[in-house]
Design brief:
This protein has 550 residues and is α/β, with parallel strands linked by helices. The chain is 33% helix and 21% strand. The strands form four sheets. An eight-stranded parallel β-sheet has the order 6-13-14-15-16-17-18-19. A six-stranded mixed β-sheet has the order 7-8-9-10-12-11, with helices on both faces. Strands 3-2-1-4 form a four-stranded mixed β-sheet. α2 packs across α7, α5 crosses α6 and α11 packs across α12. The longest helix is centred in the middle third of the chain and has 17 residues.
Length: 550
């Protein structure tokens, strides 16, 4: 086989993210692999008769972005057209939310309807979706409305009936159905297992093989559009793994997929149950670990903190008592049992955690899981996901354990003012998603958008990390927690690749690594942080040297 490159990129800065050689002028690709990177003269000397030379025309070439914590399956099923997307990023007011829901019910009389994405804190005029209100909209067929965070769902009487949820229904592990004074379900469900039980009543044929795979391909295309070449499915349902694998293994799939499976007690109790181990980046699909939810979301008041939620109109809207502290989904001992079981099975554990009290329990669970072999735990690279209120001491303790952190940085972009004015106060907002503290503690920090919970866009996370600026007010929350542009770019390339055990194959532009590439309008290092969001955009994406967008 000829060594002649299929494609050479030149004519713009090449940011390799390789500390040994961070800058280059050209890059050559053959059979999905980088075959040369360096000076334009040297790389162009390799071209042959069939080599395509791509002139970047001053644009910058970087490693393709790695979404460390995404939800491509939920994204496809919940908001791909013609699904009912009522997130605050697309439907800003409560009046519009209910107009869309009523129109959907009217257009499908007698049929189940689901809507995704309400936010009681950003959609300020949104009436709480009580069981009575939803019954008034859809009295005869299931109607379920899911919160933007994904941690709560609200169903009407028909949905409860279809799900078989009654006063006698036990709460699933790590989740619960809210009940009134007499023990009857109110229609509100919190956390994954309970939310899924309600959602299934309106899923209909959305879970058949054809629909799931079509929805996934739509979702994959949305990821490629923003420069993502590898996405982590951070809430994989075992029953949907075959569809996720099939979609990722299509010859023209736009992204590589790594999955963390929902870590249920049933799976923890079944040491013989195996999925797949770490897969090479040449494989388009692999299972990387198990996912746990130690707590919920600040937007529902369901995180355990050492400091109280404020007494405010906003906290009243989300159902909190005065000066509440929230809670966890599992006890400390229950978390330790789950983490130890999956670690013993050889799976890295990724744990959703926001509250600092919750983080103490998770770190205790990881220490217990290490047992007498801390190096084995370190080799698995267990993760802490989101990390809203994690403290400096906890970041240092996590680093000593070998745990790694992934930050939902756009919490600050979209909800920074909510954190400061409504939920906790400016001091907490200033240290929310404490990226500088995490980097200084020695972490490989990744940034993520959490799938549908904020618009999937790594460049938005980078912009927030370097500015800490809230939209739309422009207020800055916690300037001392800013990252440099180089650190923020590592957090969407090299560091998430390391978290997925793929650091020798993706995340850098180095000879022998996969040719996952993204072209940007300009060299992001030259842009003033306050202009980053306006001046830096994705113009092209390549997976293994193959164009995936536009």
């Amino acid at each position: 086989m000829s060594d002649t490159p299929e494609r050479i990129f030149t004519g713009g800065p090449v940011l390799t993210m390789d500390p040994a050689a961070p800058d280059a002028e050209a890059l050559a690709v053959r059979d999905g692999t980088i075959t040369a990177v360096g000076a334009a003269r040297d790389v162009l000397a390799l071209r042959g008769r069939g080599t395509e030379v791509v002139d970047l025309q001053g644009q910058a070439l970087l490693p393709g972005f790695v979404e460390a914590h995404g939800h491509p399956t939920i994204m496809g099923l919940a908001i791909a057209p013609p699904a009912l997307d009522v997130r605050p990023f697309t439907v800003p007011t409560g009046r519009e939310v209910y107009d869309k829901i009523r129109a959907a019910v009217a257009s499908a009389p007698g049929r189940p309807v689901g809507a995704y994405g309400i936010d009681l804190l950003l959609q300020r005029d949104l009436a709480s979706p009580t069981r009575d209100l939803l019954d008034g909209i859809s009295p005869y067929a299931p109607l379920v409305v899911v919160s933007n965070s994904g941690h709560a769902a609200y169903g009407n009487t028909s949905a409860l009936r279809a799900a078989g949820i009654t006063a006698a229904t036990p709460d699933p592990p790590g989740a619960r159905f809210l009940r009134d004074e007499s023990g009857e379900p109110t229609g509100e469900a919190h956390e994954s297992a309970a939310v899924i039980a309600l959602m299934n009543t309106v899923a209909g044929d959305r879970l058949d093989e054809h629909h799931v795979r079509t929805a996934l391909r739509w979702s994959f295309a949305q990821h490629a559009r923003v420069g993502i070449t590898t996405v982590t499915e951070m809430a994989a349902e075992p029953r949907l793994l075959p569809d996720l694998r099939a979609a990722a293994e299509q010859p023209d799939a736009e992204v590589r997929v790594r999955a963390y499976v929902m870590g249920t007690p049933e799976l923890a109790a079944d040491p013989g149950r195996r999925f797949t181990g770490h897969a090479s980046a040449r494989e388009m699909f692999g299972v990387s670990g198990m996912k746990l939810w130690a707590d919920g979301t600040p937007w529902q008041g369901s995180i355990a903190t050492s400091f109280p939620f404020r007494a405010s109109d906003a906290t009243m809207r989300i159902g909190l008592d005065r000066c509440a502290h929230g809670g966890m989904n599992y006890s400390t001992d229950e978390l330790a049992v789950l983490a130890a079981a999956f670690t013993a099975q050889g799976f890295p554990v990724a744990t959703h955690v926001h509250g600092d009290v919750t983080c103490e329990a998770v770190l205790h669970a990881y220490e217990a899981a290490a047992g007498g072999d801390p190096e084995r735990l370190r080799s698995l690279r267990p993760r802490l996901e989101h990390c809203g209120a994690v403290t400096a001491a906890q970041y240092r303790r996590a680093a000593r354990l070998g745990a790694t952190v992934s930050l939902f940085m756009d919490h600050v972009r979209w909800w920074g003012d909510v954190l400061a004015d409504d939920l906790f106060g400016p001091d907490v907002a200033a240290r929310w998603m404490a990226a500088r503290t995490a980097v200084d503690a020695g972490h490989h920090v990744s940034l993520h958008n959490d799938g549908v919970c904020s618009p999937t866009d790594p460049l938005s996370g980078v912009a927030t990390a370097i500015t800490r600026r809230c939209h739309p007010s422009g207020r800055v929350h916690g300037p001392d927690e800013r990252l440099t542009i180089e650190e923020a770019l590592r957090a969407v390339t090299t560091d998430p690749a390391w978290q997925l055990h793929l650091e020798n194959e993706i995340g850098m532009l180095r000879t022998g690594m996969r040719a996952d590439l993204v072209a940007l309008t300009t060299d992001p290092r030259t842009v003033h942080p306050d202009r980053f969001q306006e001046d830096v955009a994705v113009t092209a994406t390549y997976l293994g040297g193959r164009p995936t967008w536009p």
